[in-house]
Structures are given as C-alpha cells and as structure tokens.
C-alpha cells in the first residue's frame, strides 16, 4: 500500500505546480501588451531591423512611415517570394510630418503616432490569410475595434500580394 500513498502524495504536490505552469503558459500566450484578437506583440529589437520601404501618408493622417522587416521578410522580398513564408514579421513605424527647421522644403519626423505589426503564421491566423495584426500607441495595443479594420482593408485591397501593401524599395 505504501506505493499508492506515495503516488497520491506526489500527485497532490504536482497539482499546484501543474496549475502554476498552466497559468504561466496562459499569461505568456496572451501577454498584457498583446493586440486584441490576434495576440501580436511588438517584437524585441525591431528598431535594428532592415528597412523594407519608406512611405508617405497624405491627408488626413499626414504621416511619414517606415516599414522594417525581420530577416525572413527581407529574404522573401529580395527573392520575390509570394506568399510570404511563415515567420515573416513586418513592422510599420509612423510619425507626424513636420517641416524641417533648417530646410524649408524638407519634412522630418515629428511625434510618433503608431507602431503596426504583421506576423505570418498560416496555421494560427488561417482565417485572416495567414496574418496576425497588431496596432500600438505608446507601446500599448489599441482597442479591438481598430484591430478589426486591419484585416478588412488588407483583404479588400491587396489579396494578390499576400495581403501586404508594402513593396520593397531596392
């Protein structure tokens, strides 16, 4: 009978550990700073990634933008690979345009507006063309309603380019 008591005792000790692990896994899967709907976060080190392309958004947003990508994204753009492979991550940084104080005809970045993230995972995001989306202001995800607009625009306007607006600037 002793082995049975030992087994029951071990199970009693492991149950809190298993619950703690399950709670940790759940909180890791959906961090506080993750976008609603998709669970996308701002990737570490993205400011050191290679430039994919600059962009200019006219009125009403009046923004300067830069899209950077991880190495998988850069390699896919250079090879002309479509659809993009799983693991591709694109990050769009945006700033208000501001007239340069030194050179009147030039614009420079003003206040930061958003950081937007696209993550390719064809299984996890199968319902949205394989892409998960995140939009952040001051490092915090915006509300669910703003995230719902991401997929709608990408699906309607750039389906033939694997749902990605940005073109590579060689």
Automatic annotation (TrEMBL):
Pfam families documented for this protein: Cytochrome_P460
Record keywords: Signal
Family annotation (InterPro entries): Cytochrome_P460, Cytochrome_P460_sp
Domain Cytochrome P460: from-to ranges: 43-166
Residues making up the signal peptide according to the UniProt record: 1-20
Keyword Signal attributed: yes
Keyword check for Signal: yes
Protein name listed in UniProt: Cytochrome P460 family protein
């Amino acid at each position: 009978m002793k082995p049975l008591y030992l087994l029951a005792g071990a199970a009693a000790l492991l149950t809190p550990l298993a619950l703690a692990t399950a709670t940790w896994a759940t909180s890791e899967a959906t961090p506080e700073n993750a976008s609603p709907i998709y669970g996308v976060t701002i990737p570490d080190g993205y400011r050191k990634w290679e430039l994919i392309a600059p962009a200019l958004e006219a009125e009403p947003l009046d923004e300067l933008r830069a899209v950077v990508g991880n190495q998988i994204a850069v390699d896919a753009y250079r090879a002309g690979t479509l659809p993009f492979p799983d693991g591709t991550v694109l990050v769009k940084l945006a700033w208000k345009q501001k007239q340069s104080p030194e050179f009147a005809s030039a614009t420079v970045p003003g206040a930061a507006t958003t950081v937007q993230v696209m993550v390719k995972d064809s299984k996890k995001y199968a319902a949205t063309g394989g892409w998960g989306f995140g939009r952040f202001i001051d490092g915090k995800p915006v509300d669910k309603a703003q995230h719902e607009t991401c997929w709608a625009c990408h699906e309607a306007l750039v389906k033939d380019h694997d749902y990605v607006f940005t073109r590579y600037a060689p």
